[in-house]
């Protein structure tokens, strides 16, 4: 049972990127899933979350209107679509999940984490 992130890379300011989080060995039914990001010497920051029960979402103010979290049809993959990206979006992005309904974007509430994928926004 693990999470595997992919899709990170280098993108120019104003550009777009889509991250994927694949559930290996299970499906996301009855789970809350979230994306977090972290830069060196700073705490991990919640970015977006989604509930598998009704697809309710929540977003950090810093990404509202620019990032979208969603499921694939089988609920084994969660996406983070990022548009109008900014240099301050540069970070290692992690997905995380917990068997619960929608959770606040608090890293302490999530028990299973992926390994992270680097996103760099630079010209």
Question: What does this 3D model show about the protein?
Answer:
This protein is mainly β. 0% of the residues lie in helices and 48% in strands. Strands 2, 4, 5, 6, 9, 10 and 11 form a 7-stranded mixed β-sheet that branches. The chain has a 4-stranded antiparallel β-sheet with strand order 1-3-8-7, with no helix packed on it. Strand 5 and strand 6 form a beta hairpin. The mean pLDDT is 95.
Could you outline the blueprint of secondary structure elements for this entry?
Blueprint (H helix, E strand, L loop, with lengths): L1 E5 L2 E3 L5 E8 L7 E7 L6 E7 L5 E3 L7 E5 L5 E6 L8 E8 L13 E2 L3 E5 L2
Parallel strand pairs: 2-11
Antiparallel strand pairs: 1-3, 3-8, 4-5, 4-9, 5-6, 7-8, 9-10, 9-11
Defining key terms:
single chain; 123 residues; mainly beta; 7-stranded mixed sheet; 4-stranded antiparallel sheet; globular
Largest sheet: 7 strands, mixed
Percentage of residues in helical conformation = under 10%
C-alpha geometry: globular
Uncertain runs: none
Alpha-beta content class: mainly beta
Radius of gyration: 13 Å
Number of strands: 11
Number of helices: 0
* Helix-strand pattern: EEEEEEEEEEE
Mean pLDDT: 95
Straight-line distance between termini: 37 Å
Report strand %: over 45%
